Automatic annotation (TrEMBL), chains A, B:
SUPFAM superfamilies: Homeodomain-like, Tetracyclin repressor-like, C-terminal domain. This is WHG domain-containing protein. Keywords: DNA-binding, Transcription, Transcription regulation. The keyword Transcription regulation applies. InterPro entries: Homeodomain-like_sf, HTH-type_TetR-like_transc_reg, HTH_TetR, MT1864/Rv1816-like_C, Tet_transcr_reg_TetR-rel_C_sf. It comes from the Bacteria. Residues 3-63 form the HTH tetR-type domain.
DNA sequence: GAAGCTGGGCTAACAGCGTTAGCCAGTCCA
DNA sequence: TGGACTGGCTAACGCTGTTAGCCCAGCTTC
């Protein structure tokens, strides 16, 4: 009873989505699961889209925590990212497909999820975005079964991130930060005082 | 009149989807656009899902042609890929979200779309998949507006593909093919006779 | 203790969705 | 002439998200 009814709805929505896919995520189904009728949900939630936005925020938080718990090393970071996504494939899908309503989000969610990656990129925000996109792309294509059946996906991850790791990149392209790939979180020299997170 | 009715439906579906988004892609809407009633569509098409599969194939073909027309140079390849995706964002989305029904596809579609990238990767299929995932990830996150508002996305592309380009990668990780990044389509030394395409 | 407010359930209903069944006009070919 | 096939049609089903409006329990305030 300490959890709000809204949070309860989101928890049920998450489990239904993950267990049976987005087609089963209906208002009537959620209501049944909670022992009430569909219209009653609207006392706690604005719309179905509102529920999906809540799931997105939950997913972002979950990914952020998983990645933060993995420590600063890049290979463990990417492994944690991939592990979370494959453990919650439908939630990951929903979270990345939806455009982000930043104002409706807890203000720290996006940044705290991005911070470890920026650190692993040696503070280079552009490299961090490249890494993020690569990780997302690998996960997304794997989840959508777009790689051919026998493809060695582990190896694609290794090849990608050995190429992207800061220590192996030529110095000329760096943004003037320390070249040793250490985990300093120095913000990139963006116009604004603090660096924009990769997303 | 030389085009089949099915092809007509797909063309209308493509333009409606691109112009107004997936919510407007309804059977009744397509029928209205063609001057008939919704149930008549089922004389030419099995289901709405069948239409979406058709759109996916069209998209794959379109991407393949655009990329092939860009020539062998990696930077032009990636530019063509990104340009196609941003010119047909909803179609790109639909094409990559759907799992691929390979048996229902023209057998050459997937391979021919992949071939130029494998070539640009110096024949290294794993690197080709890494590149593909990176390009897809960059496009996908951009289309979903997941990058923060001021992000320099062009630069993320440059950073990513300068790191991934075969000529700048250390030789130890290569699969023993020519190291000069030339456009030889030599298959990678996979167990099967011809190399598996990246997807 | 009575009155009133409010939170949170309910039923009924609406418009729109994909889809099926069954009917019928026209065309083509034997 | 007649049968088969093509490609329309109407009617309808069960599902969806959502709204309107009702009502009861419990709390607060006279």
């Amino acid at each position: 009873m300490p959890v709000s009814r809204r949070e309860q709805i989101l928890a049920v929505a998450e489990s239904v989505l993950e267990a049976e896919g987005p087609a089963s995520l209906t208002m009537r189904r959620l209501a049944t699961e909670l022992g009430i009728r569909a219209p009653s949900l609207y006392k706690h939630v604005r719309s179905k889209d509102d529920i999906e936005a809540g799931l997105q925020e939950r997913a972002l938080r979950g990914i952020g925590e998983a990645v933060a718990a993995a420590g600063p090393e890049l290979s463990r970071l990417t492994a944690a990212y991939r592990a979370w996504a494959t453990a919650h494939p439908r939630l990951y899908e929903l979270a990345t497909r939806r455009p982000l309503h930043r104002e409706a989000l807890g203000p720290d969610v996006e940044e705290s999820a991005a911070a470890p990656l920026v650190a692993a990129a040696g503070g280079d925000e552009h490299l961090a975005r490249a890494m993020w996109a690569t990780a997302h792309g690998l996960v997304d294509l794997e989840l959508a079964r777009r790689f051919p059946p026998g493809a060695d996906i582990d190896r694609a991850w290794r090849v990608a991130f050995e190429a992207l790791a800061p220590r192996t990149r030529p110095a000329r392209e760096r943004t003037g930060l320390s070249r040793d790939g250490s985990a300093t979180v120095a913000p990139s020299p963006a116009p604004a005082g603090r660096g924009t997170p990769p997303g």
